[in-house]
Amino acid sequence: MSLLQELTLQNFRNYQQRTIEFDLQTTVIVGPNAQGKTSIIEAINLLATGESFRAEKVEEMISFNQELARINGKLLDPDTDEETIKLEILLTRGLVQGRKTALRHYSVNGIKRRKREFTSNFTTVVFRPEDMRLVEGSPSRRRNFLDAPLSLIDKEYAHALSTYDQALIRRNKLLQQVREREQPRSVLTFWNLTLVKHGTYLTQQRRAFLDFFAGVQFPLPFTVSYLSSPINELRIEEYIDREIASGHTLIGPHKDDLQVLYAFSQAQPPMDVSAYASRGQQRLAVLWLKISEYEYLSRRTGRSPLLLLDDILSELDVHSRDKVMSLLSRGQVIITTTEDKILVELQSRVSQLTAIELA
Known about the structure:
Layout: E1 3-12, E2 15-21, E3 26-30, H1 37-49, E4 68-76, E5 84-92, E6 95-96, E7 99-100, E8 104-108, E9 111-113, H2 115-118, E10 124-127, H3 133-136, H4 139-153, H5 155-179, H6 189-212, E11 222-227, H7 233-246, E12 257-262, E13 271-272, H8 273-276, H9 279-301, E14 306-310, H10 318-325, E15 333-337, H11 340-349, E16 353-357
Parallel strand pairs: 3-15, 3-16, 10-14, 14-15
Antiparallel strand pairs: 1-2, 1-4, 4-5, 5-8, 6-7, 8-9, 11-12, 12-13
Helix pairs in contact: 4-5, 5-6, 5-7
């Protein structure tokens, strides 16, 4: 198991300089709102994925009036269990001392790396309040839930997704030109084949990912339905006239969605969590998705991901909280909370626990 031992933040969000050590398997970060708990979770996930889950622009992560920010992490080498891997991300506004530079710089043990090489060192699974939108929000959020982990561990998937997205943009422009009779239909042929080739791979891997969830043990009987939009030559031919009329590609993985279902009773079929479940049940459904993602990454990589739970225990009743706490022995876990009583409860149930209080 890869173990995060230390995190250092410099000019990152509201942190000018802060080093946090993670001595034990479970760490609880306690503090009021707006004290930087989520920023710590964001920084750790940044070291794993190279991307922020909350910033639309890199400059949002850099402290005010600073040119750059640094995030450093020390990771126990999973192959030796003794040596450490030193990770660093340097964030800039595009200019450092008047010279143009990249917005992100990645390095491993002091050696510059490409993002793909950098993100191969460890994986994370994050659950934060915004993830509630996985079951109640837009399909694009659920597609991102599929794409993010698959892109990290499958280079072919990442390539197929990038190529598909670029081809989709190009094909949509051509559809509009065909509609306006500026181009013949034949210009679509190459892009049709490109979407079919890469879209088919995306669909196959997404389905395999979600099929894996059926074997994940969880206290509540959740299931997931993959609402795929298959793309092949026959379907393209079926939809082509409507696509030309609308100027948009109407089928393919960019239209995919998923639906979380819950069996409320043995007498009824599973029902849509987003429509019929309570808020507490919805939060547990999202946790189930995240735990399933966790198990999938563990199986595929042979290493336990770092589980990051940002205020997960709020809004749950005692019974539901018990179910969550039973999952804390799976690997390294970092939890944030605003409530001292949650810390006390965790301390009574978890032996290997470190508490960090933010003023």
